Amino acid sequence: QVQLVESGGGLVQAGDSLRLSCAVSKHSFGALAWFRQAPGKDLEFVVGISYLGRATNYADFVKGRFTISRDNTKNALYLQMNSLKPEDTAMYYCASTRPFQAPAQTKNEYDDWGQGTQVTVSS
Q1: 1: Cβ–Cβ under 8 A, 6 or more apart, which residues?
Q2: Beta pairing partners, 33
Q3: 40-90, pLDDT tens digit by residue?
Q4: Nearest-angstrom CA–CA distance, 5 and 82
Q5: Is 16 helix (H, G, I), strand (E, B) or coil?
Q6: How sure is the predictor about 27, in pLDDT bands with cuts at 50, 70 and 90?
Q7: What confidence score (pLDDT) does residue 60 get?
Q8: Pairing of strands 66-71, 112-113
């Protein structure tokens, strides 16, 4: 089990960029991912990355705008978000799977979750 702590959220205008970070309490051999939940909506998958970073899995609505990366030497996960839209407004969560699993889009594949960081995009 790992603890995950997100940071980097904030209030920005449409078209701006933000970089989210997720600090992982210890070395994780699992896939890491970002999910988000907007008010009144279900939790949705954003993007995931495998342990060595060789495989990524992006939701269609962020392809070309968001980039995931991880630094296993720092036990950290990042999400670079460009060209933000008001519909990107949500609480963003990072999550971790068991060791050596693929970055699936299904939330049930993820065992450990952070508390979230709020991203608000104004129009």
Answers
A1: 111, 112
A2: 48, 95
A3: 999 999 999 999 999 999 999 998 999 999 999 999 999 999 999 999 999
A4: 22
A5: coil
A6: confident
A7: 95
A8: unpaired
